[in-house]
C-alpha cells in the first residue's frame, strides 16, 4: 500500500477558503490578517522558482542536484507549516464566534478577563508563528537565488481553456483498428485459430487496450459467446489477486476466495462458468501473474471458450506458449499526423501549414499513439504558429533521461515534456490524480471537491472554486493527461494511463509504506485518507483517526464501511475539509462536528441508519457542499440559512409540517431556509408535495439564484400505478411548481414523482437548458411544446401513463424543433397514441432514439427520416406498432416485444438488426446493407419468411435463439439450411443459453462445416449426464474420472450383493455389466475428444 504526501500549495488555499478572519473578529485580527497575506505572497514567489528547479532536476541540467532537491523539500515544508497556521488561526476565530454574546454577558467579570487573556495568548502565539514563517520563507528564497533559480512563468490561460464548455476530447480512431478488430474476432470465433489463448502484444501506449475493448464490445463477439468477461489487470497484481479479479468480474464473490489456493479459485471459476462458452478478456497481464496451464481447466469447460489478453511483457508470450500473437504495430505517418492534428485541435488550414514541422514532432513520439496524443495535448495549449511549435521542439533537446522504466524509453520524452510544461496549479491537481488508490475512477464532481479540499484551487475574477476546478479538470482531459474511460465520451469518468503513472508517480512520492491493522488496509497520506476496505468495526476507524500523522488530514473518505459511530477524536481534525460517510451505518453525527470549522464538503449519501442531523451543522459556515441524497433522517435540528457558502445541496427535505410556522419537531426544512443561499449551483429538493402552496414555494427564491445550473424537484414517490389525486390537489401541485421557477441560467432540470395534470410554462423560458428529465409524472396529460428548447441535448420522458399526445411545437412557431437534441428517450407511457410529426430541418443532431413500453402507439413520428445522423434506434414493448420504415441513416435497430410489427423496410444502410419476440414480423426489405441479425423467439416453431424467402438478406453473421424444434430446421437438408448456408457465420442457442449449432462457411469451396448438436436434442436425462462426465474426463483424465465416478458405486453395489444375496453368479454378471459400461464410456470419450 503506497503512502504518500501530496504537494501542497498555500496561496491557493488561502484564497479558496476566504480571508483568514473578517476584520474586527479579534483585537489582533486585522494585523494578523495582513501578516498572513504577506506570507502568502512570499510563498507564491517561491512557487515561481519551483518550475525552474524541477526542470533542471529532470534534465540533469545542474551541478548540484542534491541541493536543489533539498531546497524543494524545504519550500514544501514551509508551505505546509503556513497552511496549518492559517487553519489554526481560522479555527480559533470560529471558536470565538461560537460563544453566544448573551452568555458572555452573564458570566462574571473574572470569566471575561480569563477569556480575554486566552484570546490574547492565541494572538500572541499566532504572531510568533508568522514571524518564524516569515524568516523561514525569506531564507528559502535567498537560497533559491543563490542556486541560480529563475522565475518561470508558465502559461496560465491556455488556448484549449478558451474553447466552448461542451467541447469533448477527440476520439479519432486511426490506423487499421477496425480491420485489426475483425481479424481478432475471426480468430476468436472461427476456425482460423486453434489456440485457446490469444495475446495482443505491443509497446505501452500503442493501443492494445483500445483494440481489446473494441473486440469486447462488438456485437459479433456478443453473439458468438454466451458470456463475455472484461478484467482490468495491473502490474502490481499477484497471481491470486488476478484470479480473484477474474472471479469478481465473472459474477463470483472474491471475498470467499481469500483463504483459498489458486487451484481452488480456478475450481470456483469452473463452477460459475459451467458449460458456458465464454470469452475472458484480460487487460494488462504480466509474466509473474500467469503460468503455462493458466485457466486450462476453465477453458475446457466448453468447447470454443477463449482468453484474449493484452501485454507488453514478452515473458507472458513465453508463459502461454500460444501460436496466436497479435502484435500491434506503430502508426503510419498519415495516421500519426491525423492523430496529432485532432489532439492539438487544429483546423484543416493549420494542418496544412504545419505539416513539415509536424514530421519532426512525430519522430519525437516514435509513432506511438499515447505519446502523440499527450504531446498533441501540449501543442493544443499553444497558438497554431510555427514559432510556438518550434519552442516545444527546442525544449525537448538536451534531456538526460535516467531510470526510465523498462519498455517506456520510446514514449518517456513526450510525457515528460507534457508534464513539466504544466502550470503549477494544474501540476498540483494532476499529481493528486497520480496518487489516488489503484482502481479509483476519476469523476469530475468528486475529484474537484478533493482538489478544493486540498487547497489547489485559486479564486480568479470572482469565479467560485467549483467553476475553476471544473475548468482545470477539462484542461487536463484535453491535454490527454486524464484519459476518458473507453466508451465514455462526456469526460464524466477518467483514468490516468498506466504508462503515464509508471513514468510520473516516482517524482510525486516522498515515501512508501504499508499499514495493516485487524485485516484493514488503508491508503493513507498526511492530507488524504481513503478507507477502501471494510474496517473491523469502529476500532479500525479509531486507529485511523488517532494516528498522530493524520492530525493534518484534509480529506477523509469512509464510503461503504461498516462504521456505526463516529469517535470523539474526529473533533481534533481541525484541518479537515472533506468528510464522506456515504453508504455507512452511522446512526448519528456527534455534536462536536461543529469543531470542524474548516469543513467544506459533508457527504452523507444513502446513510439509511442516520436518525438525526444535529443543530451544530449550522455552525459549519465554511461548508460548500452538503449531500443528503438517499438519506432521510427522522429529526432535523440544524438550520441551513447560515451556510451562505453552499454551492451544492442535495437531498434538501421539505418538512412534513411545512405549513406550521416555527414547529419544534422537524424532519426536514421549511422552504425559506433556501432563500439566503445565493451561491447554489446544484440543488435537489425532496418532498415538494409537502409544500402547502405557491407562496411557500416562492420563499425558496430560486429565480434569484444566478449561479444555479442543476435542479431536481422531486415529490414523494409511490409504487401505486392507479394513484388517485383530487383535482384541487392537482392544481396545488402545479401552483407549487410554478412557485419554484428557477433562473434562466439552468442547464439541467429533473422533475420526478409529480402529481399535477400539467407542467408550468416556465420550462419553455429556460433558454440554456441542455438536459431535461421528466419521470413518474403519473397524472400529466399534456406537456409544453418542448421542441422550442433550442439548446436541449438530452430529453427523457418516463412514467407518464396519462399522456396520449405529445406535440413538439405550437401552431404559430416557425423555429426548428430540437436543433441540438442528441438523444430522445420515451418510456412507460401506456396511453401514448401519437407523436407530433417532424419537419425538414428538425432534429439536426439526433443520433439515438429509444421508445419503450408504449403499447398504444401505432406509428413512429413522421419526419424521422429527416434526421441525417440518426444511427441507433431501440423500440421495446410497442404492441400496436406495425411498420418501421424510411430511416435512411439508421445503422442499428433493436425491436423487442412488438407484437403487431409486420414490416421493416427502406433502411438502406442498416447493418445490425436485433429482433426479440416479434413473431408477426414477416416483411424485411430495402435493407441491402444488413450484415448482422440476431433473432430471439422462444415460442415460434417456424423460421420467418423474411429469412427464408427469395429476398432474404445476405448476412455475414446470424445469431438465433429459439426452441429445439425451431433450431432443428437449420441443419443440412432442411428448409432453413438453404437460408443459412451462404452466411459467413451462424450461431444457434437454446433459450437457456446452451449452444445448439455453430456453422462457419470457412473456405471458398464451402467444405468446412462444423455442427455441434446440443445434448438436449435427445434424451436429456441420459445424454446430459454423459456429456458432463465426458467434460470431466477431458479435464481430469479418463482414469481419474473412472476412479472418482464409477468405482464408488461399484463398491457399494458389491457390498450390498455380498451381504444380502451371497449369489456369486449374480455378482459375476454385475461385474461384467459394469466392465461393459466403463468400456462404452471410454469409447465415447475417445470419440468426443478426438472430434
Automatic annotation (TrEMBL):
Molecular functions per Gene Ontology: ADP binding
Gene3D superfamilies xref list: Helical domain of apoptotic protease-activating factors, P-loop containing nucleotide triphosphate hydrolases, Ribonuclease Inhibitor, Winged helix-like DNA-binding domain superfamily/Winged helix DNA-binding domain
Domain AAA+ ATPase: 194-331
UniProt keyword annotations, A-Z: Coiled coil, Leucine-rich repeat, Membrane, Plant defense, Repeat, Transmembrane, Transmembrane helix
GO biological process, one term: defense response
Record's keyword annotation contains Methyltransferase: no
PANTHER family to which the protein is assigned, alphabetical: DISEASE RESISTANCE PROTEIN RGA4 (PTHR36766:SF70), PLANT BROAD-SPECTRUM MILDEW RESISTANCE PROTEIN RPW8 (PTHR36766)
Descriptive protein name: AAA+ ATPase domain-containing protein
Amino acid at each position: 500500500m503506497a503512502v504518500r504526501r501530496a504537494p501542497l500549495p498555500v496561496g491557493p488555499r488561502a484564497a479558496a477558503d476566504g480571508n483568514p478572519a473578517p476584520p474586527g473578529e479579534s483585537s489582533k485580527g486585522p494585523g494578523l490578517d495582513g501578516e498572513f497575506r504577506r506570507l502568502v505572497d512570499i510563498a507564491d514567489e517561491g512557487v515561481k522558482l519551483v518550475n525552474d528547479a524541477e526542470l533542471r532536476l529532470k534534465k540533469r541540467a545542474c551541478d548540484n542536484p542534491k541541493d536543489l532537491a533539498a531546497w524543494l523539500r524545504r519550500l514544501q515544508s514551509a508551505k505546509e507549516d503556513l497552511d496549518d497556521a492559517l487553519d489554526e488561526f481560522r479555527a480559533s476565530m470560529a471558536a470565538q464566534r461560537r460563544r453566544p454574546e448573551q452568555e458572555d454577558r452573564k458570566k462574571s467579570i473574572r470569566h471575561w478577563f480569563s477569556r480575554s487573556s486566552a484570546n490574547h495568548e492565541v494572538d500572541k502565539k499566532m504572531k510568533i508563528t508568522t514571524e518564524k514563517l516569515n524568516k523561514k520563507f525569506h531564507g528559502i528564497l535567498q537560497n533559491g537565488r543563490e542556486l541560480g533559480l529563475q522565475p518561470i512563468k508558465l502559461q496560465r490561460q491556455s488556448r484549449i481553456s478558451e474553447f466552448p464548455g461542451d467541447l469533448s476530447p477527440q476520439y479519432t480512431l486511426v490506423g487499421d483498428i477496425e480491420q485489426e478488430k475483425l481479424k481478432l474476432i475471426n480468430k476468436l470465433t472461427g476456425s482460423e485459430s486453434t489456440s485457446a489463448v490469444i495475446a495482443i502484444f505491443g509497446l505501452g501506449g500503442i493501443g492494445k487496450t483500445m483494440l481489446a475493448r473494441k473486440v469486447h464490445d462488438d456485437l459479433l463477439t456478443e453473439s458468438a459467446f454466451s458470456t463475455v468477461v472484461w478484467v482490468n489487470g495491473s502490474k502490481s497484481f499477484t497471481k491470486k489477486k488476478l484470479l480473484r479479479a477474474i472471479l469478481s468480474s465473472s459474477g463470483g464473490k472474491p471475498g470467499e476466495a481469500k483463504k483459498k489456493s489458486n487451484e481452488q479459485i480456478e475450481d470456483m471459476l469452473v463452477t460459475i462458468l459451467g458449460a458456458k462458452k465464454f470469452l475472458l478478456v484480460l487487460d494488462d497481464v504480466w509474466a509473474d501473474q500467469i503460468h503455462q496451464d493458466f485457466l486450462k481447466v476453465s477453458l475446457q469447460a466448453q468447447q470454443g471458450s477463449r482468453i484474449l489478453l493484452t501485454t507488453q511483457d514478452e515473458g507472458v508470450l513465453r508463459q502461454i506458449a500460444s501460436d496466436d500473437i497479435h502484435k500491434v504495430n506503430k502508426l503510419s505517418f498519415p495516421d500519426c499526423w491525423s492523430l496529432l492534428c485532432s489532439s492539438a485541435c487544429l483546423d484543416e488550414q493549420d494542418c496544412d501549414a504545419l505539416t513539415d514541422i509536424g514530421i519532426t514532432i512525430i519522430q519525437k513520439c516514435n509513432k506511438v499513439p499515447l505519446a502523440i496524443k499527450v504531446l498533441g495535448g501540449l501543442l493544443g495549449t499553444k497558438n497554431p504558429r510555427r514559432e510556438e511549435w518550434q519552442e516545444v521542439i527546442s525544449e525537448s533537446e538536451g534531456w538526460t533521461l535516467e531510470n526510465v522504466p523498462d519498455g517506456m524509453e520510446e514514449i518517456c520524452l513526450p510525457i515528460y515534456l507534457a508534464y513539466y510544461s504544466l502550470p503549477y496549479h494544474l501540476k498540483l491537481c494532476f499529481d493528486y490524480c497520480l496518487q489516488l488508490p489503484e482502481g479509483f475512477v476519476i469523476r469530475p464532481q468528486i475529484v474537484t471537491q478533493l482538489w478544493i479540499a486540498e487547497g489547489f484551487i485559486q479564486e480568479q475574477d470572482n469565479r467560485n472554486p467549483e467553476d475553476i476546478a471544473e475548468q482545470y479538470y477539462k484542461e487536463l482531459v484535453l491535454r490527454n493527461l486524464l484519459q476518458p474511460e473507453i466508451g465514455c465520451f462526456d469526460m464524466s469518468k477518467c483514468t490516468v494511463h498506466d504508462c503515464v503513472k509508471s513514468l510520473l508517480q516516482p517524482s510525486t512520492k516522498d515515501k512508501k509504506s504499508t499499514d495493516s491493522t485487524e485485516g484493514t488496509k488503508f491508503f493513507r497520506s498526511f492530507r488524504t485518507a481513503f478507507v477502501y476496505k471494510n474496517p473491523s468495526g469502529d476500532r479500525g476507524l479509531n486507529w485511523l483517526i488517532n494516528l498522530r500523522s493524520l492530525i493534518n488530514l484534509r480529506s477523509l473518505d469512509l464510503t461503504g464501511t461498516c462504521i456505526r459511530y463516529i469517535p470523539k477524536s474526529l473533533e481534533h481534525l481541525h484541518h479537515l475539509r472533506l468528510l464522506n460517510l456515504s453508504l455507512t451505518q452511522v446512526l448519528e453525527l456527534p455534536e462536536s462536528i461543529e469543531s470542524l470549522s474548516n469543513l467544506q464538503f459533508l457527504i452523507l449519501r444513502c446513510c439509511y441508519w442516520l436518525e438525526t442531523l444535529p443543530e451544530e451543522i449550522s455552525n459549519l459556515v465554511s461548508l460548500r457542499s452538503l449531500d443528503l441524497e438517499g438519506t432521510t433522517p427522522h429529526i432535523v435540528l440544524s438550520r441551513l440559512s447560515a451556510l451562505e457558502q453552499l454551492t451544492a445541496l442535495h437531498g434538501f427535505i421539505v418538512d412534513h409540517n411545512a405549513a406550521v410556522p416555527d414547529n419544534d419537531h422537524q424532519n426536514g426544512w421549511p422552504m425559506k431556509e433556501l432563500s439566503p443561499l445565493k451561491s447554489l449551483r446544484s440543488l435537489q429538493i425532496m418532498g415538494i408535495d409537502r409544500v402547502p402552496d405557491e407562496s411557500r414555494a416562492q420563499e425558496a427564491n430560486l429565480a434569484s439564484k444566478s449561479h444555479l445550473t442543476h435542479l431536481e424537484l422531486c415529490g414523494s414517490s409511490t409504487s401505486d400505478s392507479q394513484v388517485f389525486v383530487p383535482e384541487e390537489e392537482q392544481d396545488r401541485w402545479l401552483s407549487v411548481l410554478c412557485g419554484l421557477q428557477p433562473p434562466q441560467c439552468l442547464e439541467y432540470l429533473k422533475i420526478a414523482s409529480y402529481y399535477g395534470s400539467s407542467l408550468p410554462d416556465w420550462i419553455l423560458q429556460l433558454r440554456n437548458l441542455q438536459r431535461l428529465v421528466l419521470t413518474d409524472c403519473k397524472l400529466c396529460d399534456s406537456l409544453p411544446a418542448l421542441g422550442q428548447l433550442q439548446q436541449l441535448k438530452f430529453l427523457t420522458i418516463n412514467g407518464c401513463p396519462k399522456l396520449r399526445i405529445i406535440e413538439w411545437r405550437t401552431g404559430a412557431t416557425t423555429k426548428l424543433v430540437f436543433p441540438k437534441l442528441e438523444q430522445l428517450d420515451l418510456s412507460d407511457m401506456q396511453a401514448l397514441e401519437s407523436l407530433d410529426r417532424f419537419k425538414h430541418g428538425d432534429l439536426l443532431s439526433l443520433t439515438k432514439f429509444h421508445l419503450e413500453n408504449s403499447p398504444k402507439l401505432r406509428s413512429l413520428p413522421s419526419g424521422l427520416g429527416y434526421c441525417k445522423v440518426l444511427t441507433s434506434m431501440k423500440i421495446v414493448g410497442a404492441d400496436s406498432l406495425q411498420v418501421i420504415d424510411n430511416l435512411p441513416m439508421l445503422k442499428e435497430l433493436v425491436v423487442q416485444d412488438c407484437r403487431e410489427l409486420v414490416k421493416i423496410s427502406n433502411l438502406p444502410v442498416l447493418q445490425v438488426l436485433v429482433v426479440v419476440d416479434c413473431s408477426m414480423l414477416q416483411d424485411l426489405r430495402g435493407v441491402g446493407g444488413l450484415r448482422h441479425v440476431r433473432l430471439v423467439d422462444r415460442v415460434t416453431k417456424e423460421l420467418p419468411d423474411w429469412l427464408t424467402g427469395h429476398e432474404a438478406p445476405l448476412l455475414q453473421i446470424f445469431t438465433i435463439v429459439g426452441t429445439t424444434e425451431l433450431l432443428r430446421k437449420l441443419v443440412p437438408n432442411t428448409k432453413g439450411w438453404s437460408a443459412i448456408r451462404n452466411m459467413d457465420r451462424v450461431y444457434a442457442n437454446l433459450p437457456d443459453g446452451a449452444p445448439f449449432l455453430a456453422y462457419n462457411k470457412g473456405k471458398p469451396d464451402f467444405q468446412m462445416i462444423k455442427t455441434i448438436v446440443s445434448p438436449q436434442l435427445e434424451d436429456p436425462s441420459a445424454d446430459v449426464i454423459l456429456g458432463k462426465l465426458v467434460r470431466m474426463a477431458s479435464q481430469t483424465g479418463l482414469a481419474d474420472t473412472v476412479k472418482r465416478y464409477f468405482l464408488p458405486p461399484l463398491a457399494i453395489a458389491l457390498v450390498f450383493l455380498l451381504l444380502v444375496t451371497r449369489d456369486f453368479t449374480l455378482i459375476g454378471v454385475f461385474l461384467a455389466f459394469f466392465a461393459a459400461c466403463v468400456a462404452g464410456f471410454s469409447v465415447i470419450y475417445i470419440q468426443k475428444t478426438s472430434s
